[in-house]
Write a structure and sequence with these properties.
A hairpin with a 2-residue loop joins strand 9 (about 140) and strand 10 (about 145-150). This protein has helices spanning about 35-40, 60, 65-70, 90, 165-175, 195-205, and strands at about 5-10, 15-20, 25-30, 45-50, 75, 110, 115-120, 125-130, 140, 145-150, 150-155, 155, 185-190, 195. Helix content is about 20%, strand content about 30%. The relative contact order is 0.14. The protein has a single domain (about 5-205), classed as Ribonuclease Z/Hydroxyacylglutathione hydrolase-like (Metallo-beta-lactamase, Chain A, 4-Layer Sandwich), CATH 3.60.15.10. Pfam families: Lactamase_B (PF00753). Keywords: Hydrolase, Metal-binding, Zinc. It catalyses: 3',5'-cyclic UMP + H2O = UMP + H(+); 3',5'-cyclic CMP + H2O = CMP + H(+).
Length: about 210
């Protein structure tokens, strides 16, 4: 069984997820955001197999390098946003100087691709390319747990007015990909509380 802990990090309260399997000394982190102190304290003594990024906006990558350098773990991102890690203008950290200074990380070690499957912490993950909020946005499915980044929220959807965003792509990602999963699929979004595909399909006012 996948064990999931969430951490609300930084001024934008970005959800970072710490995932573990049966061996609780090993973990995967999804979207380590800004001000990752609480997450760093939690993973002390753990082996981090990878950092997985749903996308490379600054509020989702603020803790990447601190964790990577402390734990020696690789980073995975979709190639459409590989340059965003190294470029503050692309990752958005220059847009809100009152929220963040320029954020720059080292390049990712690995690319993510639509349909890619890999096994980490004893569990299989599948990558779904779900653009719209940003061109390289992806969602990760592990069993019936879906990590949707800023594509789908509880009673909301991701904004599309940032550079590279496209409304038509976002709704296609939600209706054409995410809403094809079973109702009981649990959704862990990039911000806000957990939900389910069935609940959003029936109640989300943006895509109902």
């Amino acid at each position: 069984m996948l064990k999931i802990e969430s951490f609300s990090l930084g001024p934008l309260q970005t959800n970072a997820y710490l995932l573990r399997g049966e061996d609780e000394s090993k973990a995967v982190i999804i979207d380590p955001g800004m001000n990752p102190g609480a997450l760093l304290r939690r993973i002390e003594g753990m082996e981090i197999e990878a950092i997985l990024l749903t996308h490379a906006h600054f509020d989702h990558i603020g803790g990447v390098d601190e964790i990577r350098k402390r734990k020696g773990c690789p980073v995975y991102v979709h190639p459409l946003e590989s340059e965003w890690l190294t470029t503050p203008k692309l990752n958005g950290s220059l847009l809100w100087p009152e929220v963040s200074g320029p954020i720059v990380t080292d390049p990712a070690e690995f690319d993510l691709a639509q349909g890619q499957k890999f096994t980490m912490i004893g569990h299989e993950f599948t990558v779904y390319h779900t653009p719209g909020h940003s061109p390289g946005s992806v969602s990760f499915l592990c069993g019936d747990d879906l990590f949707s980044g800023d594509c789908l929220f509880k009673m909301g959807v991701g904004r599309t007015d940032l550079p590279g965003g496209r409304e038509a792509d976002l709704y296609n990602s939600i209706r054409g990909t995410l809403f094809r999963f079973p109702d009981e699929t649990k959704v862990y979004p990039g911000h806000g509380p957990r939900t389910t595909i069935g609940y959003e399909r029936a109640n989300n006012p943006y895509v109902s």
